[in-house]
Task: inverse folding
């Protein structure tokens, strides 16, 4: 540390017009001299002690800053070298300032991914350049980075051409010997295609879950031993079962009372796609079994989908009945009568015992309609149909041809009495 009023007598100071000088040496931590920090005054004057102390402190602080900057530059150089080695991995690698997030290094992988060359990206703030969308506030991410020295997660970036990219990002913090943050190494890998695939898979799973939760189905799976590993679906509620209640139980025990289900399950375990229709708990289910094989061809698991088709089955049955039965009386109509008559005649030709056909009509039926109305006439027709059904055999067919005309078809009728017994009983009722 120097303070010499005579310094003004030197030729250089006379030329610069310096009257007095004070200085503090700038020494490195190892003792080597880096330079001198000095102050120059235009007139000769004594140097106050306080000024010398302030100058010495400023010198130490300046030297620390110089050494820190040199260390930071060495770190940047080292990281840049490491980043250049990682070019072969085709990842986007950058080095940025930990305080400002300004890009210090930008490798070829980053240029290829984002579209900016190194010279265009260096000096720019990373997150502004790439319009980064973070999964959580940046402050929280940096707090983790500062605490643990590393962070990894998924980010969204925007490339130069406007494409939105999903990247798997890994950050590493480099510190100096004193623990001061020097640089952040960021490695980004484009996983946009994977993200799209995963999003599509999640959407597909959500749609499947919505179907299973709302459609009248039971989705089950059982292993090679027939033990349930999955049981879910809204249709379980109609059977009084809770989702997952059958897991761990054998399908052959759970549905022992339904042989058609067990038979179809055994065929599936043998490798055959199978199915059946079964009435379970008062509901009708269309059950389909699909075997899943492993590499060696063995069946490892079977997926079973049971669809509650009760409403459809009853509607189809109602349609079939409407096509073959009289809507007013519920008796077989002309179409069903002819089908059964053809079958009875064919049987008679083989057995030489033919059927008997009795035609009936109601005397005075028109008067009932005309005097009491059609409602009364309909009631009379239903009553006649009921009496004929009660006095006939189960094998007989009682049909209504239309109007007040009825037919009784008796199978294997060998005699021809003048008054058929069925009609006598019907009249007596």
Result:
């Amino acid at each position: 540390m120097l303070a010499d009023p005579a310094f003004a007598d030197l030729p250089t100071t006379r030329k610069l017009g310096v009257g007095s000088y004070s200085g503090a040496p700038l020494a490195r931590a190892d003792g080597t001299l880096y330079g001198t920090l000095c102050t120059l005054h235009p007139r000769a004057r004594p140097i106050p002690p306080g000024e010398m102390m302030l100058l010495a402190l400023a010198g130490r602080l300046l030297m620390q800053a110089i050494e820190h900057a040199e260390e930071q530059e060495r770190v940047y150089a080292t990281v840049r070298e490491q980043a250049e080695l990682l070019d072969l991995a085709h990842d986007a690698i950058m080095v940025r300032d930990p305080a400002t997030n300004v890009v210090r290094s930008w490798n070829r992988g980053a240029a290829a991914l984002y579209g900016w060359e190194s010279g265009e990206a260096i000096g720019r703030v990373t997150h502004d350049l790439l319009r980064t969308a973070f999964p959580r506030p940046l402050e929280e991410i940096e707090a983790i980075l500062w605490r643990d020295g590393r962070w990894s997660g998924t980010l969204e970036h925007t490339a130069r051409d406007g494409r939105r990219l999903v990247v798997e990002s890994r950050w590493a913090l480099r510190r100096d010997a004193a623990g001061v943050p020097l640089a952040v190494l960021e490695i980004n890998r484009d996983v946009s295609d994977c993200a799209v695939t995963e999003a599509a898979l999640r959407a597909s799973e959500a749609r499947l879950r919505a179907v299973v939760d709302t459609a009248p189905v039971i989705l089950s799976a059982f292993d090679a031993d027939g033990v349930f590993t999955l049981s879910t679906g809204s249709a379980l509620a109609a059977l009084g079962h809770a989702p997952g209640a059958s897991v761990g139980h054998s399908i052959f025990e759970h549905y022992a009372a339904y042989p058609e289900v067990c038979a179809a399950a055994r065929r599936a375990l043998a490798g055959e796609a199978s199915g059946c229709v079964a009435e379970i708990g008062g509901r009708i289910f269309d059950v389909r079994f699909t075997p899943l094989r492993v590499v060696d061809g063995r069946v490892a698991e079977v997926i079973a989908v049971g669809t509650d088709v009760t409403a459809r089955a009853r509607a189809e049955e109602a349609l079939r009945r409407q096509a073959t039965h009289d809507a007013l009386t519920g008796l077989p109509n002309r179409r069903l009568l002819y089908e059964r008559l053809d079958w009875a005649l064919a049987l008679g030709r083989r057995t030489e015992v033919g059927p008997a056909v009795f035609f009936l009509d109601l005397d005075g039926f028109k008067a009932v309609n005309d005097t009491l109305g059609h409602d009364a006439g309909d009631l009379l027709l239903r009553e006649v149909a009921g009496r004929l059904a009660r006095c006939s055999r189960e094998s007989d067919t009682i049909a209504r041809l239309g109007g007040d005309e009825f037919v009784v078809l008796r199978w294997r009728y060998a005699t021809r009495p003048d008054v058929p017994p069925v009609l006598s009983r019907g009249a007596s009722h």
The chain has a mean pLDDT of 84.
